[in-house]
Each structure stands twice: as structure tokens, then as C-alpha cells.
Specification:
This protein has eleven helices and no strands. By secondary structure, it is an all-alpha fold. The chain has two domains: 120 residues; 85 residues, Cytochrome c-like domain (Cytochrome Bc1 Complex, Chain D, domain 2, Orthogonal Bundle).
Length: 215
């Protein structure tokens, strides 16, 4: 369910962005007749897109562990909520500055969504400060547990059974060690890719720890 809503949300956001982009370009290039035709034809579809964007966004917020990490989601929400009426007013009044401002807000919110950071600092949001300054001590398993609890438990839970953001129950996983490493490195669906954010040693430690959840 979560994955389907995530894909739907991503689709409607892209459609919303394309719609605003096309109309803004037409407005800036002074193609008023074509602009009005496009605006009239997209009026109803845009209402549907706007509604789906809000509904799916609320669902994802209520079921995502990553929303609890930092303030990126709420900044994104404010940017989207502001962009919708600003764009409507801009195109109704054919205001070029407002149209550009609305487009920039949508682009900004999209960037936040992709990086999970208001400053587009993916590592700063997805990786806990304690992990970024990690002092390698103790066994590999102890290191893996520490990194997991600081960064992964928000969605997976301390016992691997939390299941937020559409994450699977780690206790029911049948993935082998190499598959777990691959999943951590490349991510899947709502799970971000941690390659480049965690070192190879850290990924190995987390993978070994995650394997202990399997029953």
C-alpha cells in the first residue's frame, strides 16, 4: 500500500511540476493565446492532480518514519501549499514574477523530497551526527547495532518489526548477507541508498547486525 502511494505521489508531483513549467514558459515567451488554451484544457486535470498530491502526501506523512527525521517534510509541505495558490493566481492574472516564484517553490519542494533535506544535504538528514563522527570501537556487531539504532530504527524499529515507510519486517526477511548489503547500498522504494553516505565497513557492520533479526 505504502509503495503504491509513494509511486502515485511521485507521479502527480512530476505532472504538477510539468504543468506549471509548460505554462510558465509559455507565459514568459509571450505566447498568450497558446497559454490560455493550455490553461483551460488543464484546469480540471490540475484540480485532480492537486487533490491527489495532497491526499497521497498526507498518507505518506502519517506512515513514514523519515518524516520524524529533521524538519524537511514540514518545509516541503509549506512550499507545496504555498505554490498551489500562488501558481493559480499567477496564471489567472498572467503575472510572470508570480509564475516564476511558484515554479521555484515546486522545484524547491521536489529537491527537498529527493534529498530529505531543506538544504539538499542528504547525508546531514539521513545519517545521524553520531554516525558521521563514528569512532570505530568494539566488535563489528556492536558497531552495526549502534549505526542501526541511530539511523535505521526510525523505520524498521529497534526489533526490526516497526514497518514504517513500507519497510518489511526484518524478522521475516529471507535475504542473504550479500542481498542485505546490496539493499543498504542501493535502497529500494522509500528506503534511500546509503552507498556514499556510509563507508563500506559501516555497511558491512549494519548488514551483519541486520542478519541477526532473521528468525
Amino acid at each position: 500500500m505504502y509503495t503504491g502511494m509513494l509511486h502515485t505521489h511521485t507521479l502527480v508531483v512530476v505532472l504538477f511540476l510539468l504543468s506549471i513549467l509548460v505554462k510558465t514558459v509559455l507565459l514568459l515567451s509571450n505566447k498568450k493565446e497558446l497559454f490560455q488554451k493550455v490553461r483551460k484544457k488543464t484546469l480540471v486535470p490540475e484540480m485532480i492532480i492537486d487533490t491527489l498530491m495532497v491526499v497521497t502526501g498526507v498518507y505518506l506523512a502519517l506512515n513514514s518514519g523519515l518524516v520524524q527525521v529533521g524538519n524537511w517534510f514540514w518545509i516541503k509541505l509549506i512550499a507545496v501549499i504555498a505554490a498551489i495558490p500562488i501558481s493559480i493566481i499567477a496564471f489567472r492574472k498572467e503575472s510572470k514574477p508570480l509564475a516564476v516564484f511558484g515554479l521555484l517553490l515546486v522545484l524547491y519542494s521536489y529537491g527537498i523530497s529527493e534529498t530529505k533535506s531543506a538544504a539538499f544535504d542528504k547525508k546531514g538528514t539521513l545519517i545521524a551526527e553520531s554516525t558521521q563522527t563514528f569512532d570505530v570501537k568494539g566488535s563489528v556487531m556492536e558497531q552495526g547495532e549502534s549505526i542501526y539504532l541511530d539511523n535505521c530504527s526510525v523505520c524498521h524499529g529497534t526489533n526490526g518489526k516497526k514497518g514504517l515507510s513500507g519497510s518489511p519486517m526484518l524478522t521475516e526477511s529471507k535475504l542473504g548477507y550479500e542481498d542485505v548489503v546490496n539493499r543498504i547500498q542501493n535502497g529500494k522504494n522509500a528506503m534511500p541508498a546509503y552507498e556514499g553516505l556510509l563507508s563500506e565497513e559501516q555497511i558491512d557492520a549494519v548488514a551483519q547486525y541486520v542478519m541477526t533479526f532473521q528468525e
